[in-house]
Amino acid sequence: MVCPLLLATAILFAGSSLPARAQYVGRVDTSQSSNKPTLRATAVLEYTGDLTKPNASRLIPIAVWDGERYEPGGLYLAQPVPLTVETGTQYVLQVAGTPQGLFDVKAASDVGGSWIAIGNYQKPIAPTYAKLPRSRHMPQVINDADNDKPHFAHVPAGDTNPGSGTTKTTASNTSQASAPDTDSEHPTLHRRTGDDSSQTQTTSSDSNTASNSAPPVDPDRPILHEPSKSEPNTSSAPESVSGGESPETATTATDPNRPHLEYGRPESPESLDAETKADIARLASRPENLEQIVAVSDAVNRPVHSYIYSWNSPDDEKNMQAALETAAQQILAKSAENVTAKAANSSAPRSTASRTTHRKPAAPPLPVLTDEQFKAYALTWGSGPTLVFSATSGSGDAARYITLIAQPDFNGTPLVLFKQVTSERELSIIPRMKLIDAVDTDADNRAELIFALENQTGRQYAIYRVANNQVEQVFSTGS
Questions:
Q1: Which of 159, 156, 45 has its CA nearest to residue 102?
Q2: What gap in Å lies between CA 326 and CA 312, rounded to an integer?
Q3: pLDDT over 50 at 95, yes or no
């Protein structure tokens, strides 16, 4: 008998002796299990104008989930072009998990120390459904003489007036008149007789014998599938670029075993000329008409799931938004009061005179909020709402910005889990947080929140995870 303690020790020793799987170092080990996590890249498409035909657009890679951790999307497997912006990579544009279209990368370049990509928009491929053939025997509705309810019945071929049935006939005449013509293709039902049971048993036994004699199906047997329009054409390399400067996405010396993300079929690669780079450079600032949408590229097709929270009634949504508005106003008023008190204490002269009693000043009025944004997400299937609220108070150099992440407690009162308050003068130290969307960045069927962190000169993107009544920043791009 084997001692359980020795057996557990042997298993632990065997597990510790196994080498850890290293990341990709230039060659893909095909002997590894096929159930390992696949790469999943997350990016943000910035554009102005219409999404289908933007005036200017650029794709900013954020991160790549390699199954264990987040890797910088602008640096992952750069040879020299990162994997996230390689020509032919296809991204799915999403709004709270719902696809809104496709974006095919056509070229990429290092602009200002950060890799960006350009491409074109494609409409999502509509699913096709098989049409059922029309039946050869269409049912007809007739009225019974004894019952006014219509019912389905077979109309004899010789009956020219199926609707009339008021004349009473005998049973024999009725059976003869209602006997339909024989149709070779029409199914017929027969009453089971005593001999049918033995015949059925014989037939079933024969079928069982035939099925038992058939060889078992090999689970590893390859299955051929008809390729869809969105699948890549790996038989040919990307087309060469004609005219202009050579594209920086030309990767003729890359490893053939290099992993890839989801590929589409771009019409033709193109280079980034000076005019294109100038249009893209304008998006780096903070234009008022700038639009942003999340883009995800994955080598595996995953089921579509919307992360928008469904309220029981519109009043619940309005009450929750009003509660967060009040909480944001109180936080802004308190922070402004603290700043004023610190400034007064620092400017007041010190004296040894006796202290005098002063009345506590009245609470300042609640600030007026503008540019409000309120979103409610169900980050997991069937979970409660995760609330994101942001607003602006004041304008110009006196503008102040606040962002709140909250979840309702047992009584339905929003519990603030995260807050960030900054002002126009403090953006270089504390950036302004602007919500982009909720997206599943690590393929675990749980969405994370993506924010744009803006200052006076530009912005970076960060991924925040909300779990266990806590908010954690799990990744951020370089400034």
A1: 45
A2: 22
A3: yes
At residue 279, the pLDDT reads 67
Which tokens hold the place of 25? 């170092």
In a domain, 456, yes or no: yes
One domain, residues 270 and 331: no
Q: Whole-angstrom Cα distance, residue 56 to residue 48?
A: 6
Alpha helices in 296-389, H assignment, sequence order = 314-347
Kindly state whether residues 415 and 269 are assigned to the same domain: no
The answer to whether residue 212 scores a pLDDT higher than 80 is no
CB count in 10 Å sphere of residue 241: 18
Is position 55 within any domain? yes
Instruction: State phi, psi for 79 to the nearest 5 degrees.
Output: -135, 55
Per-residue DSSP letter, 426 = G
Residue 133 has what pLDDT? 73
Domain count across the chain: 2
Q: Do residues 378 and 384 make contact, with C-beta atoms less than 8 angstroms apart?
A: yes
> Do residues 253 and 26 touch, judged by C-beta distance below 8 A?
no
| Domain of residue 398, residue span | 314-340+364-476
Q: Are 305 and 143 in contact (CB under 8 A)?
A: no
The sign of the dihedral angle between the CA atoms of 111, 115, 120, 124 is negative
**292 bridge partner residues:** 46
Q: Is residue 158 part of a domain?
A: no
Q: Any idea which residue has 């007026």 for tokens?
A: 368
